[in-house]
Specification:
Elements lengths: L3 H19 L3 E5 L2 H11 L6 E3 L3 H5 L2 H7 L4 E3 L11 H6 L4 E4 L3 E3 L4 E5 L3 H7 L4 E7 L3 E2 L2 H19 L7 H5 L14 E5 L8 E7 L6
Parallel strand pairs: 1-10, 2-3, 2-4, 4-7, 5-8, 7-10
Antiparallel strand pairs: 5-6, 6-9
The protein binds iron/sulfur cluster.
């Protein structure tokens, strides 16, 4: 018997890729994370500097470690200056040759929704680095912006808060639901919708991966 959920997923991927392309972005599908990692590495030229967004997906793919082993300078605020909103690594992401990240949600009509507590990730996605590569598992695909906000506030943020629970306690991580908290350290202070390819990025590439990745 053919795999109905997988076939449905492929339909969603095709719709999403078509819409991303219509919005001026390059979109490529990979059936598994190994193929996606190979292509990301292929797209990063020797000697290029790489900015790394705060992304569980990138760490699951071990991309940053591989890039360091290849000799790239990686601006990674999870390694350096984590608690400093103006850390050199966060600022350097804005001028890196390549910016690597995932996304909180990608819609079937080809839009990306992301939120940050500090803003370095969302800013680097739309201004600064000439090449932006977004790697997203199929679990990030949603119907539209309403669903994207739901996903961002009631899935991605609570799970991220759970990841950070040794450092901070977030209301959404205790209940699994956003209460629009007034926590001074809340994770979602700056929210950006990318509707079309940002003009400052000469290349804006979205790699969709046929696996669940990140939060
Ligand atoms: S506003 Fe507060 S409660 Fe809501 S998702 Fe963000 S951090 Fe969590």
């Amino acid at each position: 018997m053919f795999d109905v959920p997988k076939q449905f997923e492929e339909l969603q991927v095709q719709a999403c890729m078509k819409a991303l392309k219509a919005n001026g972005m390059e979109a490529v599908y990979f059936p598994n994370k190994e193929a996606a990692v190979n292509e990301v590495l292929h797209r990063i030229p020797e000697g290029a500097t790489v900015g790394a967004g705060g992304s569980v997906t990138l760490r699951q793919l071990e991309l940053l470690d591989i890039l360091r082993q290849r000799g790239h300078t990686v601006f990674d605020h999870w390694k350096e200056g984590y608690g400093d909103p103006r850390s050199p690594s966060r600022r350097a992401q804005l001028t890196a040759d390549i910016f690597l990240t995932s996304t909180n949600a990608v819609t079937l009509d080809g839009k990306l929704l992301n939120t940050d507590g500090t803003g370095n990730r969302v800013a680097s996605m739309f201004f600064g680095p000439p090449t932006v590569i977004v790697v997203a598992g199929v679990n990030k695909i949603v119907a539209d912006l309403d669903e994207a906000f739901q996903r961002m506030k009631n899935v991605a943020a609570p799970m991220n808060g759970m990841r950070l629970s040794d450092k901070r306690k977030y209301a959404c991580s205790a209940t699994g639901e956003c209460i629009e908290c007034d926590d001074p350290g809340r994770m979602c202070k700056i929210t950006v919708i990318i509707e079309k390819k940002p003009p400052a990025a000469t290349q804006f590439i979205v790699f969709l991966v046929g696996e669940a990745l990140g939060y």
